[in-house]
Amino acid sequence: MYEYELPLSVVVLIIGLFICIVNANYARINSKNPSTWKKKSVFTTYKAWLIYAFCITVMIIVLMIFSFSNIIIGISNFGNEQNSVSQIQQQLTSSDSSS
Structural domain boundaries of the chain? Predict the structure, then answer.
């Protein structure tokens, strides 16, 4: 299940980022063309949506850094395992040739 958590998190955050950017544009247009009926909400200002988009972007970057560090750790562990396997093979071949 863990293998699906990171891609799912990134997809959800990207969808949220898209929604924030679209709502920021609509709020900016609405602020330039005010109507007689306005909602009284924090979501009507485009600056609030841009702040939400910024926070989501920071979360995406943190997730990417976390996953990149896991990839680097996996690559280094794979290299260490290859070195240990080659050492074992050398030991086995040297013990076979001596007997």
Answer: 17-32+41-68
